[in-house]
Fold:
Amino acid sequence: MRPEVRVYPDLEALVGEAARDIAASVRDTIARSGRCTVALAGGRTPRRLYQLLAGERIPWEAVHLFWGDERYVSADDPQSNFRLARTTLLDRIAIPQDNVHPIPTHFGDPEEAAAAYEETLRQMFGSDPRFDLVLLGMGADGHVASLFPDSPALLESARWVVAVRTNAQPPVRITLTLPVINRAARVDLLVAGAEKRGVLHRALHGPFDPTRCPASAVRPQDGVVIWWIDQAAAGGVDSNGLYST
Ligand code: 6PG
Structure:
């Protein structure tokens, strides 16, 4: 299915609309199925989105929150994606603790943490890890979650969760794999900033190239993809995802 591209003048306008749209999607999913499973993104871009989602009308008792990736640091480390969500969202909503599923980072071996998180997913999803909604950011190198260019993890086809060692800081990460991301019913990618303009063009208009541009491989077989982009990242892209002349 062709991705939907929505361009906004700036990040504040982008996250304002994204919060409303995502909240409506969560409500619709709960109305249909009784629950909504969401994988949260890390990084800087979603910070304001999470603050706005905390003020949206969402029946959090029917929402299960997971993470698309996590830095292998303690949960109170300033670099922790869990800490980002806790301080901007979790501390502000009434969500049952059992509905919050952080990626564990207390194991000595990150591979054990990845295996434990995959077991958590299996307990929630059974044999079909189909998230209702996956939130992603995109790095200036085209990485999504903690799937970085040239990473062997990009070729993983069996495991749902893997530990990776990256050149980023912090280097060790736990991440969902592409098969799980591409099994989602809906993927929302939030991209802001001029430094992402080049890689965004490749992701939207380049070839399917998971190794060199992981974001280009976010193509759910049976789901929708919405790109939320600010004008700085969009350059000449209009809201139909077409490059205006
Ligand atoms: C992480 C994120 C990562 C992030 C991108 C974009 O753990 O860092 O999951 O994939 O979404 O690096 O980050 P910014 O939003 O900070 O540009």
Q: What stands out?
A: Strands lie at 4-8, 36-40, 63-67, 69-71, 133-137, 161-165, 172-176, 186-191, 224-230. The longest strand covers residues 224-230. The chain has one domain: 4-232. The chain is about 30% helix and 20% strand.
